């Protein structure tokens, strides 16, 4: 009998037409209500935003009453971490550093348990993000937040908190980036932001005495004050110049187009920041290193000659020059030696590290030592740059020269161990009053090197050298400020994990400034210092490489080589059948040997019995 398929029309049973229409209408309303609820819930998920009222209300609450806000703030912090691109070195389609910095700047004003995590995230992002003009507005906002926080939350006689140290480090990076944009003449359209920032500096200079016992924090504050004064002082002049220019149409973008030249005309070239000779020659050396220019020796010689007058230049520009040289010194040992020679005078050089360290003798009096004529801010920055070279260089020779000096060179210069014992003995009026600040900075630098390389078998020598000399100085040091550095260094342990990674800030700054000041095809529009030296070998245009070489160690440690030398060769793995048959044959051979031994023993006993029997018969006869 054939099977006929009967179509089912009413899925909900047999209903009348009116009931069926009523049921469809109710199902339609139910579906629309559920969809509307989902859309409302989706919008309410990101409805929470940080405002001034929310920040004031959050800070006014007690610590046990902030749990509801902490959940929302944690979500904003996680979103900002992703936009910063912490795992992708600030690069990627999902990265929006300008927006994430605004969110993190708002989180810095919330005095809760997320404050330290927010500061560390921002510090890491500022260290590795690229330098772009689209970040200027966010940098001005961060500058206002940092200056306001430092001015209103200055500690009294109590020891400084860890968050205050981090905020000053963040402020140093923020104003360093702003100063780079200022040198590139990219702050001309931000007159209102500069005028508002200048109002935050009232009373900030009076807080310097509070940081006198902390040289690195005082350096950051001094850098903020100097760069902030330079940036904001030009706002009035730029406003007068902008009155003669045609107004920008409404909605026009302030950012420079990608295809626009760096320097458009002669008028713009004159308006670019007057670059110091040391900074320009540092950029020239950096370009020669990463473009493999044959004129590297000439560039280094010009830098060493120009560096003798570094004490007469603006120390802020010299700090930027040190960052540019740091980027090149990590990959070229010639630049390392040149960087160390900058600290020496034109006639005489300081005593070697062996004289100062091994025998504990004071450095000989050097009237011509260039470093003694530098501002103390420049000396502390110089120590920080040498520390970064030692941390991030892939060459063991470079790390050794920076840490202990080059013993084979007759012109040995300052290194980190020399700074550790700098002025430890009485030097009279030869050394300045800030010698203890040099040792304070050296202690923190060697502690950072020790904690970063601790547990790395390839860096055991550097780690143990830093640790041994720290203990040696601690037993000899009598200055209270230097001894406090050992306690302050403990606060930096949480940042060692961040600083152990590659720092891209010096590379970003060098790349940005080289595009602005290094000669190109349109050489007439380039702003160069008065000591510009033309060379026929550099007349052609050279492009700056965007990606820096990353060298990895290709050798084993001494411990690994000893293990491999004493290691016995293991037999190759065989198949299961061959292995089992071999084991079976070994058992058979062992059993056969046992049987043969037993048979031989029985034969010996039988022979001995027969010999005794024959002997008895002979004796009876």
Give a structural overview.
With 621 residues, the chain is an all-alpha fold. It is 59% helix and 0% strand. The protein contains 26 helices and no strands. It has helices spanning 17-45, 52-60, 67-84, 97-107, 115-128, 136-152, 162-183, 191-198, 215-233, 235-242, 266-271, 277-291, 296-306, 315-329, 333-341, 353-357, 376-392, 396-404, 416-420, 435-453, 460-476, 480-489, 493-499, 505-517, 558-566, 576-620. Mean pLDDT is 75; it is low at 41-47, 243-272, 347-368 and 521-552.
Shape: extended
Number of helices, where a helix is a run of at least 4 consecutive DSSP H or I residues: 26
Low-confidence stretches: 41-47, 243-272, 347-368, 521-552
Q: Helical residue percent?
A: 55-70%
SSE arrangement, N to C: HHHHHHHHHHHHHHHHHHHHHHHHHH
The termini sit apart by 121 Å
- How is the main sheet built? none
Amount of beta strand: under 5%
Rg of Cα set: 37 Å
What is this entry, summarized?
The protein has 621 residues and is mainly alpha-helical.
Describe the secondary-structure layout:
Blueprint: H1 17-45, H2 52-60, H3 67-84, H4 97-107, H5 115-128, H6 136-152, H7 162-183, H8 191-198, H9 215-233, H10 235-242, H11 266-271, H12 277-291, H13 296-306, H14 315-329, H15 333-341, H16 353-357, H17 376-392, H18 396-404, H19 416-420, H20 435-453, H21 460-476, H22 480-489, H23 493-499, H24 505-517, H25 558-566, H26 576-620
Helix pairs in contact: 3-4, 4-5, 4-6, 5-7, 6-7, 6-8, 7-9, 8-9, 8-10, 12-13, 12-14, 12-24, 13-15, 14-15, 14-17, 14-24, 15-18, 17-18, 17-20, 20-21, 20-22
């Amino acid at each position: 009998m054939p099977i006929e398929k009967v179509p089912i029309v009413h899925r909900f049973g047999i209903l009348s037409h009116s009931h069926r229409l009523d049921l469809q209408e109710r199902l339609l309303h139910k579906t629309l209500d559920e969809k509307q609820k989902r859309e409302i819930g989706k919008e309410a998920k990101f409805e929470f935003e940080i405002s001034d009222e929310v920040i004031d209300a959050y800070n006014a609450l007690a610590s046990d009453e902030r749990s509801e806000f902490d959940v929302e703030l944690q979500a904003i912090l996680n979103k900002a971490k992703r936009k910063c691109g912490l795992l992708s070195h600030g690069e990627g389609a999902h990265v929006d550093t300008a927006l994430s910095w605004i969110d993190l700047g708002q989180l810095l004003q919330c005095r809760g348990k997320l404050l330290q995590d927010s500061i560390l995230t921002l510090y890491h992002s500022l260290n590795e993000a690229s330098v772009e003009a689209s970040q200027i507005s966010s940098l001005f906002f961060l500058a206002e937040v940092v200056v306001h926080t430092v001015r209103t939350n200055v500690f009294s006689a109590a020891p400084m908190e860890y968050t205050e140290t981090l905020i000053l480090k963040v402020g140093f990076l923020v104003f360093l980036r702003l100063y780079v944009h200022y040198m590139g003449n990219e702050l001309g359209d931000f007159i209102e932001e500069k005028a508002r920032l200048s109002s935050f500096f009232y009373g900030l200079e009076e807080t310097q005495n509070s940081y006198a016992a902390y040289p690195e924090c005082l350096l950051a504050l001094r850098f903020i004050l100097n760069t902030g004064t330079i940036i904001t002082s030009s706002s009035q002049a730029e406003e007068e110049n902008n009155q003669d220019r045609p107004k920008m149409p409404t909605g026009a973008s302030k950012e420079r187009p990608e295809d626009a030249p760096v320097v458009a005309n002669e008028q713009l070239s004159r308006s670019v920041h007057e670059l110091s000779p040391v900074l320009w020659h540092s950029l020239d050396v950096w370009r020669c290193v990463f473009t493999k220019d044959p004129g590297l020796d000439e560039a280094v010689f010009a830098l060493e000659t120009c560096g003798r007058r570094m004490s007469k230049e603006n120390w802020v520009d010299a700090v930027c020059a040190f960052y540019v040289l740091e980027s090149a010194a990590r990959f070229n040992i010639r630049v390392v030696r040149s960087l160390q020679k900058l600290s020496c005078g034109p006639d005489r050089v300081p005593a070697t590290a062996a004289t100062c360290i091994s025998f504990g003798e004071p450095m000989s009096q050097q009237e011509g030592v260039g470093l003694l004529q530098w501002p103390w801010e420049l000396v502390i920055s110089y120590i920080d740059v040498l520390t970064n070279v030692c941390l991030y260089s892939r060459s063991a020779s470079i790390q050794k020269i920076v840490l202990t000096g080059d013993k084979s060179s007759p012109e040995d210069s300052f290194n980190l161990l020399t700074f550790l014992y700098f002025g430890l003995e009485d030097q009279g009026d030869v050394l300045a009053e800030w010698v203890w600040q040099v040792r304070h900075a050296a202690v923190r630098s060697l502690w950072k090197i020790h904690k970063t390389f601790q547990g790395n078998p390839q860096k055991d020598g550097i780690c143990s050298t830093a640790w041994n000399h720290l203990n040696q100085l601690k037993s000899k040091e009598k200055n209270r400020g230097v001894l406090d550095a050992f306690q302050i260094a403990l606060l930096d342990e949480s940042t060692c994990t961040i600083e152990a990674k590659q720092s891209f800030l010096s590379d970003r700054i060098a790349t940005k400034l080289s595009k602005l000041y290094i000669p190109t095809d349109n050489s007439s529009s380039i702003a160069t210092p008065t000591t510009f030296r033309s060379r026929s070998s550099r007349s052609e245009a050279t492009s700056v490489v965007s990606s820096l070489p990353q060298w990895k160690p290709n050798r084993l440690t001494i411990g690994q080589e000893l293990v491999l030398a004493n290691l016995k060769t293991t037999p190759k793995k065989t198949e299961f059948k061959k292995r089992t048959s071999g084991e079976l044959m070994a058992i058979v051979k062992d059993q056969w040997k046992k049987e043969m031994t037993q048979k031989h023993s029985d034969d010996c006993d039988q022979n001995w019995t027969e010999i005794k029997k024959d002997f008895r018969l002979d004796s009876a006869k």
